[in-house]
């Protein structure tokens, strides 16, 4: 079975391209175009009153969709922003400092650039005291972080590592030590949201969870999302007017906050990503495509792709995560990774590279013909 019919606009826009980077910039389904058009039409039709629809209808619908995907049962704990970097800044400002001095941050060397770069710069400027653990061995990472977290104010770790595709087990060990008074635990789910079938569920009682629409939600830019555990950070210092809660009991001039996740809101934003996300979620529902079903399909594609690379230069690589794993990409470590990525790009085959790791991502728009074409290209590499 092929699902290319759901992606006709993206695929026909570049018919010669072989896009093997669904883990990076996932191609947009046709449903996203309908969402973008509806956003524009609502702005034209409703003008100023469009915000009644955005905040009164679309926002809660999107919250419910995310909460259902996370298995948290708490739509009111979901808040949206332009990207996850916005949330990292707000969390840094809001997290409790349990001792005098800069915020003490515990993380790993396997985190994505939004956190890695910002933490490194804050450490350079003295705004945080940074403690970085190696992610390997992954099976003990959560335990090692929990054991080290006694001195930390904020702990951040990915649920699925973007560089290797490895899932971090045992995150409940971190959830057990999280507290409104510190440490705060932040789970980066950018590569697990709508990719890992098992939702984080109970982690949401005490952990923040960050994700976005750019990867497996297929919604493109502009949809950062955060699950906020109740009771953590009731008055974030970095705040926009959307976080204001009209409480008539407040004294004049006092800054009010919503009691739910809206407390972490910023100011005026582009709502088009919400429209795209909701149109895609409706599309998936109408097709009977759950995260579990898509993951099962991609897992089969990954295995067949890995098998097809036997006898090609790529088979000399170190496969960092087995095809049976939940990552939606193969991660191949080899000194020639960057050279191979450039050679493939010259043939209009899109992959990406992180250091010495070539990543080959698969999604709903791939089928066996794509795997055969990629294997032919890989055979010509040197």
Automatic annotation (TrEMBL):
InterPro entries: PyrdxlP-dep_Trfase, PyrdxlP-dep_Trfase_major, PyrdxlP-dep_Trfase_small. Keywords: Aminotransferase, Transferase. Signal peptide: none annotated. One of its GO terms (molecular function) is transaminase activity. The keyword Membrane does not apply. This is Class V aminotransferase. It comes from Sphingomonas kaistensis.
